[in-house]
Amino acid sequence: MEEFLKNNKGLKILTDTGWSAFAGLSIKPKKELVSISTKTTHLKCTPDHNIFGIDCLPIPAKDYVVSEWMQTEFGIDQIKSMEKSPAEIVFDIVEVEKNNRFYANGILVANCKFISFDETLINPFVLNTLSGVEPVETQGSVRWYVKPTKGNIYIVSLDPSIGTGGDPSAIQVFEANTNKQVAEWCHNKTTIENQVKLLKEITTYLVGITEQSTDVYWSVENNTIGEATLVTIRAIGEENIPGVFLSETVKPGQTRKFRKGFTTTNTSKLTACAKLKSLIENKKMKIYSRKLVSELKVFVSVENTYRAKPGETDDLVTALITTVRMMETLKGYIPSLADIRETSDEDSMPLPFLMSCSPSKMY
What we know:
The protein contains 6 helices and 22 strands. It has helices spanning 124-127, 192-210, 225-236, 266-281, 290-296, 315-330; strands at residues 3-6, 12-15, 18-38, 42-45, 50-52, 58-60, 69-72, 75-96, 101-104, 107-110, 113-116, 137-139, 142-144, 154-159, 169-175, 180-187, 216-220, 244-245, 299-302, 305-308, 354-356, 360-361.
């Protein structure tokens, strides 16, 4: 796992425009290196690390050849030798002030740039490996990433919205026995009634494939707008929506009024977030949606909770959090389901930065 050491001491590094502040140091696992020697200095770096050439343009180290010129602390310098070097742990200076470049052992190189300065729920180095794929098919506005098959157990979660153009409503569909994303839907102008009708269409489709109503479980987040969703479900008739309406377990001594579905409190949200973090970082959950990946990249720590950065949305993530809670509840009825393991405090501590870079070895 990659690590990031924040520069808390105000250290500076030499650049072509003088001494500059930087955010910290990135430490990465062992990588094969290329060893470059000029007339005046020497550098080991990863083949993809950018080095500035004679025209001050960044060029990957692997694209240089002997006799070409590089920018150094003492002016342009000619390459005398280039050799492959054994794998070593690599380091890189991160987010150098002003121009994102610095002198590594006297040679001018590019450095890491932040994609986000915020504390994301998911380890940023893991987020950087997630990309998503195109759906295998669409049914209306529902994107299907995996074709449902008989023998699997499916979870369908709805995060409702008022449907007037503000916050979107969202639906997530997952295989409970594999933690694999199957489908999703998201829209901000669908009425609550039509949200529930779409939920019904999805569960009807899944029950038709599984041939067992007990292989499909559905639920809703019942906070605020969720109360109107429950009214709509009662009007349609819960018995008319195929599958099993799953609700959170009432704990002994619980005094609040019980409503069907899942009520989100800050405590339940943080607990589910920790489980979601563990599943994704330990590769126990497969996500296919590019939009969901995008939302996870802006799902950050804010005032002792997690939510989207200002101006961004997190409705697909919120529906996913309900999915995780449904999975955990369902384990009480179906112990054979894939385990959602508890995380330690160390596991649940997210790293604060997301970077995209090629690291260099510096001496």
